Amino acid sequence: MKWFFNPCGRYRRDLCLLAGGALPAPERDAIESHLAACADCRKYYSELKAVTVPLNNWQENFSHIQPNPAIQQQWARAIQAAGQLEPVRRLTLAMAFRDWWREVVWSSRRVWAGLAMVWVVLIAANVSLREHPSATAKSGPAMEVILALKDQQRILAELLPDRSAPPDADQPKIFLPKPRTERMDRLAA
Asked: Is the whole-model pTM more than 0.70?
């Protein structure tokens, strides 16, 4: 599917190899014929060639640079150390916990500290509201006010007439259809 939208994409890897001088001869002919036909690939190849030609001649360009013997020994030791196998350590619960701590907690310690502070503030507010005497005293008068309002509502309901049901004169007339036989008699007459 990628080749459908980018038909030259399959030639890009081969162009890199051609610019570096590493493309085999049988494949080189197909790439060179594509380069003759495609302007975008010719531009891409010229950019690659500008980069790879100096890199191909690195031995000639940098032959005067030689590392000193101390650096060569340091490199040799690093290569030998990389090649040695480390003994396998047995995984303990403490090691697993330490690894988990480093990956989960310590890597995002600021987030965890922020969450801990939020919890501390919430717990402190909850404890202070429970121990504060005015918090419980407010619920008493509020209940008395509600009961007084309900009494007043009951008294008003007794004094005012019931307006929920319409009077008899204002009642809408209900349409009742006549039986079918009566309608047929009218049509026949």
From this structure: no
DSSP code for 146: H
User: What's the whole-number mean pLDDT along residues 74-97?
Assistant: 85
DSSP symbols for 109-136: HHHHHHHHHHHHHHHHHHHHHHH-HHHH
CB 136 within 8 A of CB 130: no
Query: Is 86 a residue whose pLDDT tops 70?
Result: yes
Maximum CA extent, the chain? 131
What's the mean per-residue pLDDT of the chain?
78
The CB-side HSE value for 44 (13 A sphere, CA atoms) comes to 18
Enter the tokens of residue 153. Answer: 């509502």
Q: What residue segments make up the domains of the chain, in order of their start?
A: 2-59
More confident residue, 103 or 139: 103
pLDDT score recorded for residue 56: 76
Task: Identify the CA nearest to 14 among candidates 36, 29, 31, 35.
Answer: 31
- Give the contacts of 16 (CB within 8 A, at least 6 positions apart): 48
The CA-based dihedral angle spanning residues 116, 117, 123, 126, taken in that order and rounded to the nearest 10 degrees: -150
